[in-house]
Design goal:
Blueprint lengths: L3 H4 L9 H11 L24 E7 L9 E7 L2 E7 L17 H5 L9 E3 L8 E3 L2 H19 L4 E4 L10 H11 L2 E4 L4 H11 L18 E5 L3 H4 L4 H9 L3 E5 L5 H4 L3 E3 L6 H14 L5 H7 L5 E3 L24 E2 L5 E2 L12 E4 L2 E5 H9 L4 H8 L3 H13 L2 E5 L9 H14 L9 E2 L15 H4 L9 E3 L3 H7 L1 E2 L2 E2 L4 E5 L3 H4 L3 H8 L4 E6 L11 E4 L8 E4 L4 E5 L12 H11 L10 H8 L3 H5 L4 H7 L1 E3 L42 H4 L22 H5 L2 E6 L13 H6 L4 E4 L1 H6 L7 E5 L4 E8 L7 E5 L9 E2 L22 E6 L1
Parallel strand pairs: 6-7, 6-21, 7-18, 8-9, 8-16, 9-10, 16-17, 21-22, 22-23, 27-31, 28-30
Antiparallel strand pairs: 1-2, 2-3, 4-5, 4-23, 11-15, 12-13, 14-15, 19-20, 24-25, 25-26, 27-33, 28-31, 29-30, 29-33, 30-32
Helix pairs in contact: 5-20, 6-15, 10-13, 10-14, 10-15, 13-14, 17-19
This protein binds ligand MGD (2 copies) and molybdenum atom.
């Protein structure tokens, strides 16, 4: 039997064809390769056709769109999805992926039955088992691991599959009650650390309502693939451009957004923090900073003690006890020290002696920190002319400027440094908290409110909450049997809502770690890179097959009614978690029905304030929650930020590594923006920063970009979308291709010490020389050989443990 996932692309799979046929012959129907998840959709002959029922749903996955849609059903079959109207035209949207749910729900790679591995891991041989057998086997083994090795012997890992509250969040209840390890997927951690530490987190994310873009004069798309990774959001950028905003794109590669830009700034990879610090240097030198914002809205006037790097507080002056009442003080021009409320105009600069404490304002420390980054020095690092850096700084400071930072800079080991640096620029120039000035775009815009309150359900007071470990550190921890100094014996992994072996860095390290795992369970909708390696596969329903609530990112609360019955024996995560909870002897804690769960979740003040309850939602189908009074910009309005100090923080007095595994760090350096070159992707010798050893051996930086046709690996077997883009292609700048004798259409092998991938090549002058680009989200069977995730490294900075996909160098040869 041929694995049908590949057939729909019109090619014979390389490894599975003969093996599968032999298996069929040898063992008949006892087990099949690729057979159990094939969907057979037959219409019920007894029914009259054509009567269409329309329900509502929200498209999931992590494209950051969460578009509400209408789901059309005939004769119990999903036949179409279409967009839902919205009173704000730019929010009315559906994309080519949203329009193809029919092909997702009836996809040939859908998992239909619980499966037990019947061959070697990853071999694709399966035995169909019942749900009862699956749950009993998992729970019996889990209990024995718990008994022998403790609750931390089981680890759960999740990410981007389905963020609705009955899926990813509800599963957390199970592992919190079991005391299991939670693996932090460590995607985008540098982005979120830098931004949240600097300006706090608004209701759901880090930035403004997209409507605020329409008042911007300058839009900085910084490492952001606006038109591909955020194309449903791009309507706002387009409209802002029509209204006169200038679009500036900072990216190593000439992206489609760059082709629409007023200015394209091709930057050397991994150097964005330097550009941001240099722009700040210019803004300070040319007096373009925002005094009012610095004084009232940031930590600028706070006095940093030379002795310990902490802010001067009342307790240091003997005016309060240490603790909650102990407030930070500032200094007036007359030398008076007091609370910010007592001192009308605090000084922003200077070093002083205050009752035996030598202190300097936080702003002065920032000014000193960016002193070295003259545009001329930054030009050497970033490969951008000094005059351009000055021009960018002037535009940014003039405003109103909206920053649309993407995750490009996040994907290097030094990633967080950019986000801390750029937020210092945003704060010092006051480009935040007012019309047209703030954080936005697909990556930063507010996801608006979710309205569900399930904290008590997800984190029950009687839970045991096991340790959280960052994914890049997990393979080593599994192999070593310890995490830092803590002994750790992970015997079972439960992966759901994540295609771990398709999307984590350094796949080969994960495959080696799996050899130490006794029981690998994967709950997914499809047979993919990860479920293929499982010992037990649990088939999960597509979300339109379950009764659920979800919030669109355009402010529509949706009753996502079960439009059709789950295919085969698939079940929602909610039901699976309840079965596992009961199997683990916690029947009393996993007895909520879906209806009870959603009723409880929406029974809260916030939901009531917008007229939302589970019953009302079920009656009405969907409810618009945006009101004229809904705030449109999230941070910095009236100089207030949702941080500990209530101010924008470019100086961090409590700086510490996110994953503390006992590694040393320089507190003084990390308290303010700083830069070091990426680990591998540093290809040049600049005085003070010699080329990386890895780049001396492997001269090309290997990066990826989001394609419109997939969300990570989701939709990757969708025939309609495959018609538009049928296979992975790695692109080369003409110089790099010529040097290697590579032409468009050639098959190339991309390799380094960690692994290789064999794919087709194309020449693209839009690439920065020395940078390769592949479209993200392909899986093992899509490559001619190898896997692109075998190339990337799981090394990350000591401060933020993050998956640094692009901090990866390679060589390429024609096959
Ligand atoms: N090379 C490279 N790799 C990258 C990146 C990159 O830029 N380059 N980007 C990274 C980033 S930023 C991210 S966020 C990650 C995302 O990484 P993942 O979270 O692994 O992304 P997906 O491929 O979307 O995997 C989600 C899985 O959830 C399944 N699923 C869908 N609905 C449900 C459900 O209701 N229940 C369950 N149990 N499963 C469901 C889907 O079938 C799919 O297999 O990828 C990372 N990987
Ligand atoms: N269609 C689609 N949309 C998605 C997703 C998807 O899988 N598919 N995934 C969603 C998720 S989880 C995420 S995290 C976001 C990601 O959103 P983006 O980060 O906007 O998406 P990418 O395509 O990874 O784009 C990274 C950009 O950074 C550039 N870049 C690479 N290196 C550098 C550098 O050193 N400096 C600068 N300035 N730029 C650099 C790349 O050329 C590219 O244009 O997209 C979301 N939207
Ligand atoms: Mo992401």
């Amino acid at each position: 039997m041929v694995e049908s996932k590949n057939l729909c692309r019109g090619k014979i799979p390389r490894r599975t064809f003969l093996k599968g046929s032999a298996a069929m012959l040898a063992l008949g129907a006892a087990w099949l390769e690729g057979g159990f998840w094939l969907s057979k959709v037959t219409a019920d002959p007894g029914k009259t056709a054509n009567e269409e029922v329309i329900t509502y749903g929200v498209c999931r996955g992590d494209c950051l769109g969460h578009c509400p849609m209408r789901v059309h059903v005939r004769d119990g079959h999903l036949v179409k999805t279409s967009k839902l109207s919205h009173p704000i035209p730019e929010f009315e949207r559906i994309c080519q992926r949203g329009l193809t749910h029919v092909q997702r729900i009836y996809a040939p790679d859908r998992l239909l039955h619980p499966l037990r591995r019947a061959g070697k891991r990853g071999e694709g041989k399966w035995e169909q088992i019942t749900w009862e057998e699956a749950i009993a086997e998992i729970c019996t083994k889990w209990k024995s691991y718990q008994q022998e090795f403790g609750p931390e012997s089981i680890a759960f890992s999740d990410c981007a599959g389905n963020s609705a509250i009955d899926s990813r969040p509800y599963t957390k209840r199970l592992f919190n009650l079991m005391g299991s390890v939670r693996i932090d997927n460590s995607f985008d951690n540098s982005f979120f650390s830098g931004i949240i530490d600097s300006v706090g987190e608004s209701s759901w994310s880090v930035g403004d309502d997209e409507r605020n873009l329409l008042s911007a004069k300058y839009i900085f798309a910084w490492g952001s693939n606006l038109t591909e990774a955020g194309h449903v959001h791009y309507a706002f950028i387009n409209k802002a451009k029509d209204l006169g905003a200038k679009l500036i794109v900072i990216d190593p590669n000439y992206t489609i957004a760059a082709s629409k830009a007023d200015k394209f700034v091709p930057i050397r990879p991994g150097t964005d923090a330097v550009l941001a610090m240099s722009m700040l240097h210019v803004a300070i030198a040319e007096k373009l900073t925002d005094k009012e914002m610095l004084e009232r809205g940031t930590v600028a006037p706070f006095l940093v003690k030379e002795s310990d790097g902490m802010f001067l507080r009342l307790s240091d002056l003997g005016r309060a006890e240490k603790g909650a009442a102990d407030a930070i003080v500032v200094r007036g021009a007359d030398g008076q020290i007091g609370l910010p409320s007592e001192i009308a105009v605090p000084v922003l600069q200077g070093t002083f002696e205050v009752q035996g404490h030598r202190v300097t304002t936080a702003y002065d420390l920032l000014v000193e920190r960016v002193q070295e980054w003259t545009p001329e020095r930054a030009a050497e690092i970033c490969d951008i002319p000094a005059a351009t850096i000055r021009e960018l700084a002037r535009m940014y400071a003039k405003g109103p400027t909206t920053l649309c930072a993407g995750y490009g800079p996040d994907h290097y080991a030094n990633g967080q440094q950019f986000y801390y640096a750029v937020m210092a620029l945003v704060l010092a120039t006051g480009q935040i908290g007012r019309p047209g000035a703030g954080l936005n775009g697909h990556a930063m815009s507010s996801f608006l409110e979710n309205y569900a309150d399930i904290d008590d359900i997800v984190t029950p007071p009687d839970g045991k909450q096991g340790p959280v470990i960052n994914a890049p550190l997990v393979p080593e921890a599994i192999k070593a049997g310890k995490y830092g100094d803590m002994p750790l014996n992970i015997k079972s992994l439960y992966v759901y809502d994540q295609n771990l072996l398709g999307n984590q860095t350094h796949r080969t390290a994960w495959l080696e770690a799996l050899e130490h795992i006794d029981l690998f369970v994967v709950a997914d909708v499809t047979m993919n890179d990860t479920s293929r390696y499982a010992d037990i596969v649990l088939p999960v329903a597509h979300y339109f097959e379950t009764d659920t609530y979800d919030m669109s990112y355009s402010g529509v609360a949706v009753y996502n009614a079960k439009a059709v019955e789950p295919l085969g024996e698939a079940k929602g995560d909610f039901e699976i978690v309840n079965m596992l909870g009961c199997g683990m002897g916690m029947a009393d804690k996993f007895s909520l029905s879906r209806d009870e769960f959603f009723r409880k979740a929406l029974d809260n003040e916030k939901a009531r304030a917008v007229g939302l309850s589970w019953e009302k939602l079920k009656q009405e189908g969907y409810i618009y929650t945006l009101k004229p009074e809904t705030p449109i910009y999230m941070h910095g309005a009236k100089y207030e930020f949702p941080t500990d100090t209530k101010r924008g923080e470019f100086y961090r007095e409590n700086v510490a590594p996110v994953a503390d595994v006992g590694k040393a760090f320089d507190k003084k350096r990390e308290a303010l923006p700083c830069w070091n070159p990426p680990y591998e992707a540093w290809q040049v010798d600049v005085p003070g920063f010699p080329r990386s050893e890895a780049a001396a051996k492997y001269p090309l930086v290997f990066t990826s970009k989001r394609p419109k046709f997939r969300v990570h690996t989701q939709y990757s077997s969708n025939p309609w979308l495959l018609e538009l883009w049928k296979e992975p292609v790695v692109t080369f700048h003409p110089h790099d291709a010529e040097k290697r004798g590579i032409r468009t259409g050639d098959v190339v092998k991309i390799f380094n010490d960690r692994g290789y991938v064999v794919v087709k090549a194309a020449i693209n002058p839009a690439n920065r020389p020395g940078v390769l680009v592949i479209d993200h989200g392909w899986q093992k069977d899509d490559f001619i050989d190898g896997h692109y995730s075998d190339l990337s490294s799981n090394k990350s900075d000591v401060m933020v443990t993050n998956n640094a996909f692009f901090d990866c160098v390679v060589e390429a040869v024609k096959q």
